[in-house]
Structures are given as C-alpha cells and as structure tokens.
Write a structure and sequence with these properties.
This protein is α/β, with parallel strands linked by helices. It contains 13 helices and 8 strands. The chain folds into 2 domains: about 1-325, Alpha/Beta hydrolase fold, catalytic domain (Rossmann fold); about 330-464. The two termini are about 20 Å apart.
C-alpha cells in the first residue's frame, strides 16, 4: 500500500526516541484485538528483525511473557488473542477455534507489515502449536526468519497424559504445579496478572483436545527452529520429541526450570533465545515457502526482509509522535493533556489544531521580534545623523570643544552599527527557528493528510 509507505517516510523527518512502547487495536473476526509493540522504531530493522510473540493457554494473555521485551535492540510484538486480556470477546462462538486463532495471527502480522523473512515467530506452550498450525497451512507462503517453540508440546493428548502421570507422582495438583509449572516461591506478578485476566470461553487444553503435529507438514517448514523447554517442564522430552522432524531444529533444555522458564531464569532464557535470534538474523534464515506454498506471503503482503514498511500501521507512527511530544514537553502540546482524550480521533483533531496554531504562532513571533529589532537599527542610523547635526551646532555655538564632539561621534558610530548587526542576527536566528518549526509542523500535517486519505480509501472500500 503506497499511502502507509509515504506516511512512514514522512515520520522519518521527526525526532525519535531510542526506545518507545506503543499500544494499538485492530479488528479481527468480529473481535477487537489489543497489541503492544516495544521499540516500534526497529520494526523494520533488517539486521535485528522483530519478534512476534504468541501466548499460551489458550486464553492466558501475554502478561507473563512481557520479560521478552528485555531482548536488546529488537522490536518485540505482543497481542492478546480474542476473549482474554485486553482483547474483546468474539460475538460469534465459532470464532474460538484453531483456524480462527490462525486468522487472528495472520491479521496481526498483516496489520503490522510482518511477513516472510522479515520477522521471527515465537510461541509459548499453546502458542507454539498455534505457530505450527499457521505455518503448516497450504497457503502459508514464506517462512519467518526463525521459529521458537517454547515449552510447546507436539501433541495435546500426550502432554495431558504426561501431566496426569506427574500429578500422580507428586501426590497433588498443588505439588505438581510447584514442581512442573513454576518453581519460584510465592506469586509471580506477571503470571498472576495473566491468570487474573485469562479467558473462560475457550480455555485450556480441553479447547484444543486432539491437536497434534503431522511429521510430513513439519518437514516442509523450512526455517531455523529453537525448541526450548525447562528441565522439570510438564512438557517432557517425550512431548517435544516429534519436533525433531523439523529440518532445522535445535533443542535446548534449561537446567533447574519448568514450564515458565522465562520467569524462573530470565537471564539464561534470554541468553539462549537472544543468541538464536541473532544467529538467524546473520544467516538470513527463513524466507522459503512453508508447506510447499506458493509465493504468497502470509501475514505481510509484499513485506520482505529488506525492511519494507509498506504495511506499517499509521497509528503506531501517530502514537510515536504523541510519546515524543510528551517526553520532550514540546510546545506543540502546550497545556493540553493528551491522556484525557477519549478516542484516537479526538487526539488527532487536537494535534491537528495545535499544529496549525503553532505554525501561525511561530511566524507571528518571528515577525514581531525581527522587524522591531531591525527597525531599531534603522532608527539608530537616524539618531546618528541627528547626533552629527547636533554636534556641529554645539561646536558652532561654542557649547563644547570640537575635539570632545568628534570623540563622542567616533564612539557613537560603532555602538549603533553593532546594535544594527545584532538586531539583524537575532532576527535571522528567530526566522530560522520559525522555519524549523514550520518544517516540523508541515511533516505532521503531511502525516495527517495521508492518514485521512488512507481512512477515506478504507471507507470507500467498505462502501464498495
């Protein structure tokens, strides 16, 4: 889409922070999905490609995976699947299925311009099976740069059987959870938040009973894959063994951890994952067709590993502008509190009006300060001429000695000349600042115009 691409380029002329976090929403299958992007300015970095994160459950939202945002110098994308966390519930019960979840994943990836080899795909627990279901579709198209299957079983029936065996060994569900789900003492804030906002309509392994991988389909997923699990994970070695059918699978077991290894040993976990992602970036992994699909790129249209921003979400750029203004206390925001706005449209209109007002104010300020100062220099010239005439009169009438009059005129000339030069320099400096402000606001106005055009285009498409 050419409009988003131009909008993204227009925002390149605005100052950017080293790291930002933006939230957004998109519509998918009748539900409003929430997503969060850490470091959106790196979303199309070809050297360190972004990581798209799929949470587990089903319907246990992303909170417990937020430590993944600590991966350095890389954009990390989270989203809550329909019916849990910050995402709304689907109106149609049929929306809750493996196929519907795959469609949500596709919508999120497309919305953010991620597709083919320009991103890494990560799934934890059920999220790994979701990633497999996505990549094994006949129309999956090009593979991501890499795939990470964290604590993900290859068969729901097998992991349920292993869990029952471990519960019997431990003697109770509580002991099982403490030994094989999360071995840290006490409540973990990230995990508590995720469970507190978990869904109820399509929850747990019962919702995906019977789901298992197909060895033939695995053989056609042609991207480097990291299979990561904890030593005491209820997703046992037997549960992950079928993933060995992946052509480029690497298995890592983190000592002393269980199902939530990311929380239990964050440093070791991120070291293993981060190293794998960097190696995949350097090798240019992925990009081949998954499941023998054709050239269509699932989840990103024409986006490629070259960092094409054609699918970038305009709201991400607009939110980045908002964040910059807040952090820098830019005069564009004035005394307005943008957080009080109820809708994106209200914020957009506020910024639009404030931008126009700022441009007019900058020009007015430049004229007000430049021309009076320049006028002072001209008035100084008139005063100097009057001083010469006055000196002549004073000497002629014998009021002052001629030598004193000449000395006074000699000092007055340089002082008035310096005053004039200073006035002109100050006026030019003010005009330059006004020009920079106009450039800044023009970029914003260009962005608003392109956003309006994009919205108009979508409206026309909907009407058609």
């Amino acid at each position: 889409m050419p409009v988003p691409r131009v909008a993204a380029l227009a925002l390149l002329f605005l100052p950017r922070r080293a790291s930002t976090v933006v939230d957004g929403r998109l519509s998918s299958g009748g539900a409003s999905l929430w997503y969060r992007v850490h470091r959106p300015e790196l979303l199309f970095d070809a050297k360190r490609k972004p990581l798209l994160v799929l949470h587990g459950g089903p319907q246990v939202p992303s909170d417990y995976l937020f430590p993944l945002s600590k991966l350095k110098n890389r954009a990390v994308v989270f989203y809550d699947q329909a019916g849990c966390g910050r995402s709304n519930s689907a109106k149609d019960p049929s929306q809750y299925s493996v196929d519907a979840s795959v469609s949500e994943l596709l919508d999120v990836a497309t919305h953010l311009g991620l597709g083919g080899g320009n991103y890494h795909l990560y799934g934890q627990s059920w999220g790994g099976l979701l990633a497999y279901s996505f990549l094994s579709r006949p129309d999956a198209g090009r593979c991501p740069c890499s795939l990470t299957l964290s604590n993900s079983p290859a068969s729901v029936a097998l992991v349920e059987a292993e869990a029952m065996r471990l519960i019997e060994e431990q003697g109770s569900v509580e002991q099982f959870m403490a030994a094989h789900n999360c071995r840290l003492p006490g409540e973990q804030p990230e995990l508590t938040a995720a469970y507190a906002h978990a869904g109820t309509t399509w929850r747990g392994s019962g919702a995906i009973a019977g789901l298992e991988v197909d060895a033939g389909a695995l053989g056609r997923i042609g991207c480097p894959t990291l299979v990561l699990r904890g030593e005491h994970d209820f997703v046992t070695e037997a549960c992950v063994a079928p993933w060995s059918a992946l052509p480029e699978a690497t298995f890592v077991t983190l000592a002393g951890t269980s199902h939530h290894a990311l929380l239990e040993d964050t440093g070791a976990y991120l070291s293993s994952l981060g190293g794998f992602l960097c190696e995949s970036d350097a090798s240019g992994g992925g990009g081949g067709d998954a499941s023998g699909g054709g050239g269509a790129t699932s989840g990103g249209g024409d986006a490629s590993s070259s960092g094409d921003a054609s699918g970038i979400d305009l709201e991400i750029d607009l939110q980045r502008v908002r964040l910059q203004m807040r952090e820098e206390e830019d005069s564009l925001t004035g005394d307005f509190d943008l957080d009080d706005s109820d809708t994106w449209a209200a914020e957009t209109e506020l910024l639009r009006a404030r931008t126009a007002k700022s441009e007019a104010g900058a020009i007015k300020a430049a004229r007000k300060e430049k021309y009076p100062l320049t006028g002072t220099a001209l008035y100084g010239g008139v005063l100097f001429a009057a001083a010469v005439l006055g000196a002549q009169y004073a000497v002629k009438e014998g009021l002052v000695p001629a030598e004193l009059s000449l000395a006074a005129l000699a000092l007055t000339g340089p002082v008035l000349a310096a005053s004039g030069s200073l006035a002109n320099w100050r006026g030019e400096d003010i005009e330059e600042s006004a020009g920079q402000k106009r450039t800044y606001t023009e970029n914003l106005q260009t962005f608003f115009r392109l956003k309006d055009e994009a919205s108009d285009g979508e409206d026309e498409g909907n009407e058609a």
